[in-house]
Amino acid sequence: MRARARTSPILLMWMGATYLFLYAPILVLAVFSFNDSRLLAVWRGFTWEWYKAALSNHPMLDALRTSLLVAALTTLIATTLGTSAALALERARRRARSLSEALFVLPIVVPEIVVGFASVVFFGWIGLRLGLLTVLIAHVAFSISYVFFVVRARLAAFDPRLEEAAMDLGADPWRVFWKITLPLLTPAIAASGLLVFTLSLDDYVITSFVAGAGATTLPLRIYSMIKTGITPEVNAISTLLLAVTLALMALAFRIERRGMTRTNLVLVGLILLGLVGFAFGDIATRRPRATLNLLIWSNYISPRVVRAFEEKTGVRVNIETYDSNEALLAKLQAGVVAYDLIVPSDYMVRILIRENLLRPLELTRIPNLRHLDPSALGLPFDPTNAYSLPYTRGVTGIGYRKDKITDPIQSWADLWDARWRDRIAMLDDMREAFGAALKLLGYSINSTDPEQLRRARDLLQRQKPLVRAYDSANFDQLLLSGEAWIAQAWDGQIVKARRENPNIEFVIPREGTTLIVDNLCIPRSAERPDLAHEFINFLLDPDIAAENMNDILYLMPNRSAWPRLRPELQRHPIFSIPPEVLRRSEYLQDLGPTTVLYDRYWTEVKLAR
């Protein structure tokens, strides 16, 4: 007998490196889900804490339930329709077969962003409100093609003489289908079902266009957490999801090799029972009551505050999240959403007013507005507060490691210091990056002068070789890990990072900076404006505001609540801005047509070498 050739060690090493490349990110995610640190950069020891936190995080669990529910229903519907289409096409004439196959290819090759935009336009045209149903319809629409081609591939190897033999022996068409055709197609159907389940569970782009109130999926929830910082709870939820996916894959392989045996049937039933029980468990215990639909940044309101409002009023607060002001604008412009309260940033308030998308506030129904700091009222984007009241305020500045940089940091110019080459991080945000450059040049952050913008672009391009990363989500972790020593930063995440490492310092540059206010507004399309006014008044109560701030670690302009803040918030940098720096600081404004020029110059900066 011929001896089997040994595999080359180099080939084995190459194979191992390939597997490492494929699975290292997943392994890191799973390992850091047990990290005893709130942030993700530094290993501080083993803990189960994040699993406990994840399993008690109701918004996260609700998003996971929604994802599983949508994925399960999508799998059921798409698998049925896709399999039926493949069987029908197998028996169609050859000319019709080619055309139909081409039509099934399109949903796979068309970019997701086009499918998402087309879907939301279509739903707006037929007047269907965005919600769980629109997400389900969109997911089924892009999933059917995958089932179709997987089952078609199996049918191509199918021997039709088996069906003919069964019919010759007296079996009717239904019996032939159940006893011959379906069992032989089961591996392909199971494989396509698993593929559809995974695609639906994972989809972000299309879902972000068609999701409305009550339809926030887990990918939407995680992506919306970028502004306020991702915690290891996401790692824990993702690891649990990964374990379920691996179990499903193992089962699919088992079915493919051994067929649908009784044992496999029991296993499928148990897994489906568990998933359905989890997905519907909360719905079954939920009592029908009035609902307030709140659209807000992720982790931007205390669960304890929400629970207190629900217990006081009997109203259920349904929290949905978004990842950018532009996404919020797109949803409201579509005209098929039903949010009662939203939290846009300053410049977006001006745009929403101009687009007639906001409902005027009835200030007499909000007596607690007397607790607000007068300096946070009457701001340029809404001078009379007819449409908005401030929720949180913040500032952009410079975070740095004082154990790495001993020189005083005072100016935006420190982010251009060649001594910190490859240790500088900038926000991956066009307006903030240009804002730093414009302020350093002595201009307004809202400049529309082409020559000033060109000089700001040139300055950013000269800085680029020194920059380690443009990152708006994890700049705090770059500082914590020591990968970056100095970073353009938002105050809220630095306050959180300082709890992990007191060597992290935050300063507001002397040239002035960006002032930030996120606001409470009621959309014109709100169905429960009465509840929205009641909730705004509740949030402005000093005791509630203090509890909210102490949990989310973002400062609210509620003067009556400030004495009750935790110490790190009482030392918030906003309280110590020198008056001359404050005078040089500005709120971002809508730039109108000049935004196109910003976009072009920002692209040139990102492409520069």
Describe the structure.
- The chain has helices at 9-32, 49-55, 58-90, 94-109, 112-126, 132-156, 160-168, 173-202, 205-210, 218-224, 232-258, 262-285, 303-313, 325-334, 346-354, 430-440, 450-463, 475-481, 491-500, 529-539, 542-552, 567-570, 579-584, 595-607, and strands spanning 291-296, 316-321, 341-342, 358-359, 389-401, 424-426, 467-470, 486-490, 504-507, 514-520, 522-523, 586-587.
- 38% of the residues are buried.
- α13 (303-313) links the parallel β1 (291-296) and β2 (316-321).
- It has 24 helices and 12 strands.
- The radius of gyration is 28 Å and the shape is globular.
- The mean pLDDT is 85.
- It has 609 residues and is of the alpha/beta class.
- Strands 5, 6, 7, 8, 9, 10 and 12 form a 7-stranded mixed β-sheet that branches.
Main pleated sheet? 7 strands, mixed
Low-confidence stretches: none
- Whole-number mean pLDDT: 85
Which structural class is indicated by helix and strand composition? alpha/beta
The quaternary organization reads as: single chain
Count the DSSP helices. 24
- Give the helix proportion (percent range): 55-70%
Cα distance spanning the termini = 60 Å
Radius of gyration: 28 Å
Give the overall form: globular
The number of distinct β-strands equals 12
How big a fraction of the residues is strand? Answer: 5-15%
